[in-house]
User: Fold these one by one.
Assistant:
Number 1:
Amino acid sequence: MPKESIVPEVVILRLPLYIRALSQMLSEGQTVISSNELGNRLQVTPAQIRKDLSYFGRFGKQGRGYKIESLIEELTKILGLNRQWDSCIVGVGRLGKAIINYPGFVPEGFKIIAAFDNDPSKIGENVNEIEILSIKKIKSTVEKKNIKIAILAVPASIAQDVITSLVDTKIKAILNYAPIAPKVPDTLILRNIDPVLSLQSMTYYLD
């Protein structure tokens, strides 16, 4: 079951943005930052940043700002990013292969260790040293390797069926690239990624 919390989901969604901005500033040589500076970088009000952080305790000192390295460390712990999360991907077409080959996951604590597809011609193929298994082996593989996160890169027509098949496994979080709004039980955490929706939300601001 997902972790119960009084922290609003929108706050949790902002924490990775804070870590990314802080990490960039640290790489630029900055060691201390104020909520005003961080807010300007992310287009978030300083008051919102202070409120977000207050859910997790006290950080920094009034008038002195935050020590960037310490704040990154604390936010990393809060999000559980101080460990490796083994993940799997379902659907190894062009998008799925691109995701498997993406080098940005491992440095951030996520490692794809299993891949599944329902196309017999792909079974047994290796992508970035990961063997593609039959979709029928999802449950046994997830159980054996204790995988908690699944990435879906399947057609919309079968996405719901795949998600339903994951309900009775150890999968607790799903990152869905299929352009649908699937139904999931309360025991699963779902995040949908759809660039079309993002584009549609931007056209409101365009002439």
Number 2:
Amino acid sequence: MIKTPKGIEVHREFEPDMERMVHALKVVLQSKPVEEKDTSPKDQPVKKEETA
């Protein structure tokens, strides 16, 4: 049996929150993916800042 490192054990009071978080992640992952906007530097105008 492998012991979990100190500080990583899940407390009973936080278990419902973990379940809700996992459920929310599943919903997000199963939902229709939004088209990613291409935010590469090539598409954006280059702003040159002059230092005083």
Number 3:
Amino acid sequence: MNNSITNILNSEKVKQFIKSNSHISVQKILLKYSGKTDLPIKEIAEQIECRIKARKKLPALSKHNLIYKKVSLEQASSELTADFKSSRINGKHIIDLTGGLGIDSIYFANVFDKVIYCELKKELCEIAEYNFNVLNINNIQIINGDGIEILKNYEDNFFDWIYADPSRRNQMKRSVDIKFYTPDVIKNFELLKSKTKNLMLKLAPAFDITEAFKLFPALNEFSVVSVNNECKEVLLFFNFEEKTKSLGKIKSAVMLHEREDAEYFSAGIDESREKQFADVSDKLYFYEPNAAIRKADLTKLIADKFKMKFVNPISDYLVSQKAINHFSGRKFKIEYTAIYNDKEIKKYLKEQNITKANIARSNFPLKPEEIKEQFKLKDGGQHFLFFTTNCNGEKIFIDCLKF
């Protein structure tokens, strides 16, 4: 008898149970059925929980009867980011060294003749095979094993692209130091380089741009991907072909939205742009660039493009005399601004009857929670209160409304 997870969950009885109970909370299912049925309730509860999350993260794929693993689903690319990655690359052969749930491989299959999916965990390989079959994808080869060891079996320059999403060896260690990740792409960099024309690495959103170019002298592009103004991935792109060696190194920001077209900005890493500063009290509009723009160090590019000025030398806050509707980030109309003074701010908040607000701070000593406590404010409402410094280093307070 085959007791693999796919066989257990693929029985008609289990599928019907999941369908009938998909609206019930996982906790209630476990309490009601644990030890009272021969059905695999723990596995069923996990699938129901995963399917709820998948509807948001994988809206198109989740319409199919796929199987998930909770941790793997959390670590997997979303449909938006997987689709974006596949839009940047194509060719005959790609190898995904860290297959996981297989979301990236599913999208790579649309733009490559053949995808090699590698995964250490046998159970994930079985789930991937099941899901690929459900989706009628037949150009992905599944190999259960270590991606680096599998790569050694291929001749040099066999692949058009190699893709890897290194993960922490110790999931409890929150370090973003790539030395603690597997596969060890630094140790195996020459091997990777010998087997492909191009390499794409997916790293944690916290990975630093300066560190990336320092660790990888051959790096061509450092790209930050955000979804709905939240940084989701850092992608490193390498091209090892001789004819591209003279290409400059760039940093880029990719802004993906669920209901709008993607946006893309890029600049050379050596491009020098001077920051221009302004007195906030003279300006009418306040802007905070998209998280990807800030992370990719492209705020100066945006400021130049829209003729904006910085509030101070440290923060990514921008101001302008004009309303810029197509700005990539958060846009506000300035209602009031003043030098920070506890009594004056309390007086202003009382006069304006502001008891709820959205607090943000940058280059400011107090944390949002401390600010809320100090001014007796609750979360929410229409007002956005920014606490920062001006170009002279003085602490300031800015009250804004979205436009």
Number 4:
Amino acid sequence: MYYFIINPNSRSGAGKKIWTDLRQILQTKNVSYEEHFTEYAGHAIELSRRISSSAQEQHPVTIIAVGGDGTIQEVLTGLKNPAFIRFGYIPTGSGNDFCRSTGLSHDPKEALMTVLNSDQTLSLNIAELTCQNSTSRFAVSCGIGFDAAVCHEIGISPVKSFMNRFGLGKLAYLLIGVRQLFALPPVSLSVETDAGDRLTFKQVFLTAIMNMKYEGGGFQFCPFADPSDHLLDVIVIEGMRRPKLTLCLFLSLFGKHTRFKGVHLLHCTKISVHTPKPLAVHKDGEYAGFQTDFSVSLAKENLQLIIPR
């Protein structure tokens, strides 16, 4: 039995049409499945929790998220018994950093074929974000600063929905990203890791905590991040003037920015972040509120992700 958790509103409603096509394939192949549609923010958490609660070593459960990176993080947050879950992903969103980092197909039909036909899995780290005594999970990245400010503005601006109607969702991120690049003031920030780091940075532009190498639609902020190594990769960018910062961001698309003065890379399994004033935080591109303190750690158990043979 395959359990599909579908966000029909991903990519401004395109997710519903994509699922209609995928459903026809499942029916043609006489696949035994259940479909569960999300109806509001956080619904995928509830669906995932209910479906996964019966998973056992002798009776593993296969759950497939159909949506964008934000759908994945909700499904992960709700998962119970992750060691006994086979997890699949079919992308219908606009970012798809999860696919870039794990080698999954960006094509929904090809991704479905992987779920149905592959017996190959990747042992996937599950990252956990704790803010104000509330813990949720994410797959790709969490951040504060530039990337989070872009995610926050995207969430409250009508620009993305408008652009998605014409298949130009990435352009919305570009426009808002350029605005934030020149408008966002740098901040001071301190971090503490379980690897023994206790560091304070000034004039920070971006801090990203990465489980995977890509975020933000293709930026390789931590180009050596491995989603199965049980480590978090952290980048802090500080003390750069705008022209140098612009070049640094451009080169990060190719993972060629790491030798810039002002780029700091850390590795850990747990990190705590503090800022003097509340700043926007994101997880997998979804706004996670304004915070002064938060921590990120790795769950004890990895998740088995279905990948191509």
